[in-house]
Amino acid sequence: MLFGTGRAGELLPTVLAELGVRQAMLIGTRRELERSARVLGGIRPALVFDEVVQHVPVELAERATQAALDAGVDALVAIGGGSAIGLAKAVALRAGQRDSAARPLLIVAVPTTYSGSEATAIWGLVDGGLKTTGIDPRVLPAVVIYDAELTRSLPRGLSVSSGLNALAHAVDALWAPDATAATAAVAVDAIRMLAVALPAVDADPGSLTGREDALLGAHLAAGAFSATGSGLHHKISHVLGGTFGLPHSETHAVVLPHVVAFNVPAAPAAEAQIATALGAPSAVAGLVALRDRLHAPTALRELGFREGDIPRAVTLILAAVPTSNPRTVTADGLSALLRAAWSGAAPGSAT
After folding, report:
1. Which residues contact 101 (CB under 8 A, 6 or more apart)?
2. From its phi and psi, is residue 3 left (phi > 0), alpha (psi between -120 and 50) or beta?
3. What are the backbone angles phi and psi of residue 173, rounded to the nearest 5°?
4. Residue 131 — pLDDT band, cuts 50, 70, 90?
């Protein structure tokens, strides 16, 4: 993990040379690649792949993998947010599955949002409207270059929702399947750091201090999440995004307070940790105050989710709820949670 504000353009070619990369595939949206031209000026990729969409459809992953194999690349340089990095992970995974004897494709990630995907060995693919995730060491980036300068061009709304996505990683890590005291300590540090950094980014978008802290907080949160696995919040968000096409980070921003309101009655230790980290009387009050201070989205209906789709979403989510969740999840309880999130009702008012 390399942190260097304003230094990505210097660090990237150096890293590729030190890794012995001969043929690199550059992955990022066309807009991101144009915006980051200065950073990329020092490398000459064998292939540029700019077809990047959220939630990584399996068909797109297959096209990108075939393009990488045809070009004979030995590394993937992903610049952007979770979608670009997620596609790089899918390519590395599928290329490895095709030829397990071949040298794994290295991933060099240059994140420009606070998604945290670069710090995990978690991959995700959508096939037939269903999102599948997994863990594989082949998708963990070999090197990550954090340059806060690259986040300055993030629109305010995406800065906020991306940061709340990072916060969701830390919160979910407190009750995910493999949570431990050690991962909880990292997660709490991440919550505390993000609770300060995100308002700073929102108040002064040009300042780099808040952006540097937000990147570090996102990194810590993703590390805790990667070690513990997906909790209830992410199971819900994966269904809403993968099956119903909701935008990734905005969905996290809306759903998080509702999941916390649902779980904390059965998780007093996590409740106290979240509240203390947020400097609030309760976990839910702290999250709602932070969300409102950042003017984040509050209702799934504003993101395109239809009330009539709640029953199907409940069925899909129930099949994926981890047994570690501190509170038993029933169809009625989950329906009430989603209905409150859909309408924008106060978290906990219906559960």
Report:
1. none
2. beta
3. -65, -15
4. confident
C-alpha span between 307 and 299 (Å, rounded):
11
SS3 294: coil
| Helix extents (H) in 27-77 | 30-35, 37-40, 58-71
3-state secondary structure of 51: coil
275 in Cβ contact with 334 (< 8 Å): no
How many CB atoms sit inside 10 A of residue 204's CB?
Answer: 12
SS (H, E, C) 213-280: HHHHHHHHHHHHHHHHCCCHHHHHHHHHHHCCCCCHHHHHHHHHHHHHHHHHHHCHHHHHHHHHHHCC
23 DSSP assignment: S
Distance (Å, whole) CA 271 – CA 113? 27
Is the pLDDT assigned to residue 183 strictly greater than 70?
Answer: yes
Q: Which is nearest to 130 in space by CA: 313, 304, 341, 290?
A: 313
